[in-house]
Amino acid sequence: MVTKNIIDKNAFGRKIKTAREKMGLTQFQLSEKIDVSPNFLGDIERGIKLPSLNKLILLSNTLKLSLDSMFSESLDNILYEPESVYYTDRQLALIKQVITTINDNF
């Protein structure tokens, strides 16, 4: 089984760095507030590492960012579907009915 990393660490790190700079904090100041080393925070901002859940919540509170906004650009939102999708006759009839209804009403 192949596992795929669904978080773009670089995009996440850029979001953290931008928010930190917007608040006028140095890496050292932010690292003290969330109790990590400045090197670890630097690794997060460069997209090398991700914070633990506890540190993520501290980052969110300190930088005044919601968790969804922290990940908005870094999550893999691609829907993976098999190459061939098979529908039953009943499913195809329902799909056709939905499309017809939409076309007739809009």
Summary of the model, kept short:
Helices cover 59% and strands 0% of the residues. With 106 residues, it is mainly α.
Structure description:
The protein is an all-alpha fold. It has a domain at 9-71: Orthogonal Bundle (434 Repressor (Amino-terminal Domain)), CATH 1.10.260. The chain is 59% helix and 0% strand. Helix 2 crosses helix 3 (38-45). The longest helix is centred in the C-terminal third of the chain and has 17 residues, at 89-105.
Name the features.
single chain; 106 residues; mainly alpha; 434 Repressor (Amino-terminal Domain); 6 helices; elongated
> Into which percent range does the helicity of residues fall?
55-70%
Give a short account of the largest sheet: none
What is the typical, i.e. mean, pLDDT?
85
Which class of secondary structure composition applies to the elements? mainly alpha
CATH class of one domain: Mainly Alpha
Q: List unreliable stretches of 5+ residues.
A: none
Q: Give the ordered list of helices and strands.
A: HHHHHH
Distance between the termini: 45 Å
**Which fold name corresponds to the CATH topology of one domain?**
434 Repressor (Amino-terminal Domain)
Tell me the overall shape: elongated
* CATH homology superfamily name of one domain: lambda repressor-like DNA-binding domains
